[in-house]
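Readers outside the structure-tokenisation community will struggle with the description of the input data as it stands. Showing the layout once, in full, would remove most of the difficulty. For illustration, here is how one protein appears when written out as sequence plus structure tokens:
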Amino acid sequence: MAGAATDDGAPLSKLQELIDLAKEPSSEKRRVLLREVTDLFFVNPDHRPGELALFDDVLSQLSGEMEVAVRAELAERIAAADPGPSRLVRGLAADTSIEVARPVLERSSSLTEDDLIEVARQRGQAHLQAISRRNTVPEAVSEVIVARGDDATLGVLLSNDGARLSRQAQEAAVDRAEANPALHAAVVNRRDLPPDLLNEMYFVVEAKLRTKILERNAEVDPAELEAALEAARNRVATRDGALPPDYAEAERDVRSLVARKALTPKALASMLRNRESTRFMVALAELAGIDFHTARLILERRELDALAIVCKAAEFERSLFLTFAVLVLDREADAMGRAKEYGDLYAELPKEAAQRTLRFWRMRRQAPKMAA
């Protein structure tokens, strides 16, 4: 576009002409004017501070008078500006219309962390989701999104590898994901999720995601493992629920077996055969070093893949695990066939991965604890 220019090439005389035209009352002419000023802004992206401020003033004033479609068109273009007119960008980001706000919230590099936090605190889920899709989402911004976002928004944030989440935000995400299967994959697939939080998801996710957790466990280096275990000690679960009515009696019986050195894997099989469920759960928890709640989950939900992990880590014989599997499945149709399937799982499960997984489960161990 022709016109007088400053030393760095900005055609300010043309800009002044357009400012004069801003006095036109016609909305159509003002739409044309807005597009021309926007075109002029992009003629030379290297604006001096005074020029950038002038563009900011003019574009902010003009855009505020335009309908949604025109503001959305402007937002789509200005989202690519670096730097962009700051007041204009902030105004577009906070626009009540998501069609206007989305391009800027998702892509503008001119929005500061404080700008994003302000929008995240004031606008609804569509705005939060747009922020969650940015190439980089700072921790402080993610904190607000986790606190205010619904599960759909949380899923968008968790699926973005560029989103940085604090430990507190990760814990909140895991707590919510445990109750919502739609979030399971997004949580498990996050490469920055600490191993202890990843393993909290084991009992609530489907088989494919359980396999991924085991694979991740096998990759954890010793230093990361110890750090994760230390973090887990500070987050031991407190949601075990009421104990069964015969727990105290079962605990006394198992304690007696421990004192007589008679608590063996074969004794566990005998308990299952005799349908002494609570004694079996107390005994399994004692032998494997896990909490009663985890042992209860394994038995009551018939979690044979989790039982395979416990048995492999504790170095129980495969034949004994198969016995457990058949007894746990009990009268279920094709119990023998399914037991063989899980026997194959036991054989293929790396002992190291099983032992690392069991270490995380042991972090859940709580009172009442057994006395040796």
